[in-house]
Amino acid sequence: MTVTPRKIEADIYDRLSRVIDPELGRSVTDLGMIAAIHADPAVAPDAYDVTVQVELTVEGCPLSETITNQINGAVASYPDATLTPHIEVTSMSRDKLADLVADLKAERKQNPFTKPGVKTRIFAIASGKGGVGKSSVTANLAATFAALGYDTAAIDADIYGFSLPKLFGVRTQPTNLNGMLMPVTAWGVKLISIGMFAGADRAILWRGPRLQRSLEQFLSDVWWGEPDVLLLDLAPGTGDMAISVAQALPNAELVVVTTPQPSASDVAVRSGLVALQVPMKVRGVVENMSWYEHKGEKLRIFGEGGGRRVSEQLTDALGYEVPLMAQLPLEPELRETGEAGRPAVLDKDGALRTDGIGREFRTLAERLMGV
Prior knowledge:
Blueprint: H1 5-16, E1 34-41, E2 47-56, H2 64-76, E3 82-91, H3 94-108, E4 121-127, H4 134-147, E5 152-156, H5 164-167, E6 175-177, E7 180-182, E8 184-186, E9 189-193, H6 208-220, E10 229-233, H7 240-248, E11 253-258, H8 262-272, E12 281-287, E13 292-294, E14 297-299, H9 306-318, E15 324-327, H10 332-339, H11 356-369
Parallel strand pairs: 2-3, 4-10, 4-11, 5-9, 5-10, 11-12, 12-15
Antiparallel strand pairs: 1-2, 6-7, 8-9, 13-14
């Protein structure tokens, strides 16, 4: 079959409509990133050199190689002729980028997670006190969702004690598109945290409205796309941020993390009782550090029964069942691997582990999603 250069150019543009920008979740053609396509006959019959001029949203885009590899593949796999791709990469002009960002913001206009028909399941991970492993649970649960194939996002809403960047090994800042931020992706999870910004190592003393505004910015000024799951790592206790989350995300479901001993479980109940004051459902309880396995014996270092106590008390107080959804063991590897920048539920290749802790988190994720 003989094809013309014009048909090749039109066909390649159509094929590029299926190349998706990993950050914005839209095709490169929809985003105006394909400035031109030229097909020129080569020496061999039915062979053409195809030049694709690509304009990235920002100079030095960290995912430019991913995008250009997909474009190369779309050109080289053309079935009706032998095409040799030549990709020329530049960045958008300031005016073109401003128009693109204005269009994206106009399309969203507000917190995207409260729009009618939104498909995102939102889980706010809470605890009554610090030190129970809430952030570790959040990080490993997010990594589990991503490994199971869910489009997953996580917000580090613990403004004072942010820890998700370290647990995911993130050392870069979000890409800024004229005031709209692209979340950093690590281990398959889209992340945002105050800890990603310059000066974040300084003490933060925000209260009330300013604290609430930080959450609103994370929701409204970050391009999340349409994730299947959004997790929020809340600060311990029942302070301003927990109330702000309930106000900004009334469709969020609260997951309460505790450890077995009474001193932790008693205050964990209080974090769940926030649901009496705000329109937020408590989805369930996770008991962390339930036991330590030593030579085949389960040593209950912190006692036992805390998760069950929290579940029963919240069920009585709220008038609906708040189940104990998981009892997670105390595993040094969970801390050691996490502090090295990889959620412990994943192997080195990013796949979900099929043994102990991987199975525990898979079961928890499936219960939360009702699978």
